[in-house]
C-alpha cells in the first residue's frame, strides 16, 4: 500500500511538473505573440511617422493608413475589409439597409455628361415627370460638368423633406428647364417583384438579404396565397446575399419548426452556432422551385442549399457562386469598423459550398478552386448525393445563353437605351407589359435608326480569322493562303451585315425590356421579360409535372446524384478498389 501511495504521489508530482511546464510553454508562446504584435505595430508606426515627416510631397495621412491596412488584409479574402469613418454610410447602405433621402432615380456618366438611367415608381423623380434619358446640367445650382458618379449621387441625396432643384436638358424639348422636387425617404425593397405567372404559379423576386428581407418575402407569400397558387417560384438569380439570419427566416416559411438550416464553424468556439427554424411554416406543402445562377451567393446559397438538402424545393438554373464564408463586423476607434471572415457555414447535409481556397494560395498569390479530387459526397434528407466545395448545383441545369456580339454592342453603346427614349417620345402609351411586343414594322424602324450609328464589334469568327493570319504569318505560310483568307474575310463582312436579322429575337427582347421600363418602370421589365425566361418556363413545367417533381425530390433514377465532379468520381472508384484489394 505504501509503495502504491508513493507511486501515486510521484505520479501526481510528475503530472504537476508537466502541467507547469506546459503552462510555462504556453505563457512563453503567448508572450512571444505579444512581442511580435508589439514589434510590428511599432515598425508600422515608425514607417508612417518617417514618411509623414520626410516625404517630398504632401500626403493624405488617412489615405496612407487605409492603403496600409487594405494591403494587410488583401492576403486574406475579398470579404475581410476595413471601413473608415468616411465610408461608413455607404457601407451601411450596401450591406445593412437600402434606406436614404433622395429623389428615386439612378444616373450614369456618358462623355462627361450626367444622364438619368432609370426612375422608380412612386418616388419624387417619377411624380415630378423626370425621364430616363434626361441630361442633368445642375443640381441646386451646382454645375455638374466634371463631376463623377459619386459626387452627383451625393448631391441628389439629402434629408427627407428637403427641396432639390434640377436643371434638365431633354432631347425633344428646345430649351433646358427646371424641376423643383422634394426629397423623400427612398427605401429600395429587397423583394423587387411578386405576382402570378403562367400555370397559376406565384413568383417572388428577391434581390438581396438585407434588413426586413424575410418580412418582405412573408408579405409577398401571404398575398400570393390569397390567389390559391399551384406552386411558388423563389427567384434568387444574381442575389449576392447579405444577412444570414434573414436566410434562415425565409427557409422557415417553407420548412417545419426545429429543423437545422445552417451552422457556422470557425476558430473561436464561442462564435460557432447552429441556426434552426423557430416557428411553424407559412407554406409547408405547395410545390417550390428556387432559381439560381452563377451570381447567386452567400445567403442565397444557404436558402437554395438548405431547401435542396431537406428535399423541400427543386433548384433550377446554373451552379451558384460558391461563397461559404461568414463575416462579422467589429467597431474600431473613430467610428470606423473592420469586417472579418470568422467562420465557414454548412448547410443541413453537412457540406460547405465554398469554392475558392483563400488559405492555400499559389506561390504567386493567386487563389485556386477546391480540387475535384478533394470534394466530398453528402446526402440530402431523402438520400440524394450532393457535394461540397463548388456552390449549389441545380437539380435541373439550364444552360445560360450568351447574347450575340451584336446585341452586346447595341447595349454597350447605349443604342438600345437611346432608342427607348426616342420610342417613348413618340408613343404616349403601349400595351400592358405582359403583352407588349414590338411589331416587325417597329423593329425595322429600329434598324433604320441604327443606319448612321456606330456600333462596331468583332465576331468570334473574325477573331479566329485574325488569329489564323497571325499564326500563318509566323509560320511564313500566309502568302500561300492569302487569297482564301481574303475570300473568307469578305464573306464574314457580308454575313455580319445580316446580324440584325439573324439575332432579331434577342435584340427585340432587350428592346422591349427597356421600352417597357419607360412606361411601367421596374415592374414592366420583369413582366415583359417573362415570355423570354426559359428558367421560369422550366419552373412552371416542372411543378405542373407531378411525376417529375416527385422523382426529383425522391432522388429516383438520374436525379439520385446532383452535380458529381468527374475527378471526384474517379478518385472514389480508386478508393473503393483499394478497399476491395484489402
TrEMBL record:
InterPro entries with a match to the protein in the record: ClpP/crotonase-like_dom_sf, PDZ, PDZ_sf, Peptidase_S41A, Tail-specific_protease
Keywords assigned by UniProt, alphabetized: Hydrolase, Protease, Serine protease
Origin: domain of life: Bacteria
Record-annotated PDZ domain positions: 92-171
One Gene Ontology cellular component annotation held by this UniProt entry: outer membrane-bounded periplasmic space
Annotated GO biological process: proteolysis; signal transduction
Gene Ontology MF term list: endopeptidase activity; serine-type peptidase activity
Similarity section: Belongs to the peptidase S41A family.
Record PANTHER family: CARBOXY-TERMINAL PROCESSING PROTEASE CTPA, TAIL-SPECIFIC PROTEASE
Protein name per the record: C-terminal processing peptidase-3. Serine peptidase. MEROPS family S41A
Source organism per UniProt: Mucilaginibacter gossypii
Lineage, broadest ranks: Bacteria, Pseudomonadati, Bacteroidota, Sphingobacteriia, Sphingobacteriales
Amino acid at each position: 500500500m505504501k509503495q502504491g501511495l508513493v507511486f501515486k504521489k510521484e505520479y501526481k508530482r510528475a503530472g504537476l511538473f508537466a502541467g507547469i511546464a506546459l503552462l510555462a510553454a504556453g505563457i512563453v508562446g503567448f508572450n512571444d505573440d505579444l512581442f511580435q504584435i508589439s514589434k510590428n505595430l511599432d515598425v508600422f508606426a515608425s514607417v508612417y511617422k518617417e514618411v509623414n515627416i520626410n516625404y517630398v510631397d504632401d500626403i493624405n495621412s488617412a489615405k496612407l493608413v487605409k492603403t496600409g491596412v487594405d494591403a494587410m488584409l488583401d492576403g486574406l479574402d475579398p470579404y475581410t475589409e476595413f471601413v473608415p469613418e468616411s465610408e461608413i454610410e455607404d457601407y451601411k447602405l450596401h450591406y445593412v439597409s437600402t434606406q436614404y433621402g433622395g429623389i428615386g432615380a439612378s444616373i450614369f456618366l456618358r462623355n462627361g455628361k450626367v444622364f438619368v438611367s432609370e426612375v422608380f415608381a412612386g418616388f419624387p423623380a417619377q411624380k415630378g415627370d423626370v425621364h430616363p434619358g434626361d441630361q442633368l446640367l445642375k443640381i441646386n445650382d451646382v454645375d455638374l460638368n466634371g463631376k463623377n458618379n459619386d459626387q452627383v449621387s451625393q448631391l441628389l441625396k439629402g434629408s427627407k423633406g428637403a427641396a432639390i432643384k434640377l436643371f434638365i436638358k431633354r432631347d425633344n424639348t428646345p430649351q433646358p428647364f427646371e424641376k423643383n422636387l422634394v426629397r423623400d425617404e427612398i427605401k429600395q425593397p429587397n423583394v423587387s417583384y411578386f405576382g402570378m405567372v403562367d400555370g397559376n404559379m406565384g413568383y417572388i423576386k428577391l434581390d438581396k438579404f438585407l434588413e426586413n428581407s424575410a418580412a418582405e418575402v412573408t408579405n409577398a407569400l401571404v398575398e400570393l396565397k390569397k390567389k390559391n397558387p399551384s406552386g411558388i417560384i423563389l427567384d434568387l438569380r444574381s442575389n449576392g446575399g447579405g444577412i444570414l439570419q434573414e436566410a434562415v427566416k425565409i427557409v422557415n416559411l417553407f420548412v417545419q419548426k426545429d429543423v437545422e438550416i445552417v451552422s457556422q464553424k470557425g476558430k473561436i468556439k464561442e462564435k460557432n452556432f447552429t441556426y434552426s427554424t423557430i416557428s411553424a411554416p407559412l407554406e409547408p406543402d405547395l410545390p417550390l422551385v428556387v432559381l439560381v445562377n452563377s451570381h447567386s451567393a452567400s445567403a442565397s446559397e444557404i436558402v437554395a442549399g438548405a431547401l435542396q438538402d431537406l428535399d423541400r424545393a427543386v433548384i433550377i438554373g446554373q451552379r451558384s457562386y460558391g461563397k461559404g464564408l461568414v463575416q462579422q463586423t467589429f467597431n474600431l476607434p473613430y467610428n470606423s469598423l473592420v469586417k472579418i471572415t470568422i467562420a465557414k457555414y454548412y448547410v443541413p447535409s453537412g457540406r460547405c459550398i465554398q469554392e475558392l481556397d483563400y488559405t492555400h494560395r499559389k506561390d504567386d498569390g493567386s487563389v485556386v478552386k477546391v480540387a475535384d479530387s478533394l470534394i466530398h459526397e453528402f446526402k440530402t434528407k431523402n438520400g440524394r448525393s450532393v457535394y461540397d466545395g463548388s456552390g449549389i448545383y441545380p437539380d435541373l441545369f439550364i444552360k445560360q445563353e450568351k447574347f450575340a456580339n451584336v446585341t452586346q454592342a447595341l447595349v454597350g453603346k447605349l443604342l438600345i437605351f437611346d432608342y427607348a427614349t426616342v420610342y417613348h417620345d413618340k408613343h404616349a402609351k403601349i400595351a400592358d407589359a405582359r403583352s407588349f411586343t414590338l411589331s416587325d414594322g417597329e423593329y425595322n424602324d429600329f434598324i433604320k435608326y441604327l443606319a448612321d450609328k456606330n456600333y462596331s464589334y468583332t465576331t468570334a469568327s473574325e477573331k479566329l480569322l485574325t488569329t489564323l493570319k497571325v499564326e500563318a504569318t509566323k509560320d511564313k505560310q500566309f502568302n500561300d493562303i492569302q487569297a482564301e483568307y481574303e475570300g473568307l474575310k469578305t464573306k464574314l463582312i457580308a454575313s455580319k451585315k445580316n446580324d440584325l436579322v439573324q439575332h432579331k429575337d434577342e435584340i427585340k427582347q432587350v428592346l422591349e425590356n427597356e421600352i417597357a421600363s419607360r412606361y411601367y418602370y421596374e415592374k414592366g421589365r420583369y413582366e415583359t421579360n417573362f415570355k423570354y425566361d426559359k428558367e421560369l418556363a422550366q419552373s412552371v413545367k416542372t411543378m405542373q409535372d407531378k411525376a417529375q417533381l416527385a422523382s426529383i425530390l425522391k432522388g429516383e433514377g438520374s436525379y439520385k446524384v446532383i452535380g458529381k465532379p468527374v475527378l471526384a468520381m474517379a478518385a472514389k472508384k480508386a478508393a473503393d478498389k483499394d478497399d476491395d484489394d484489402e
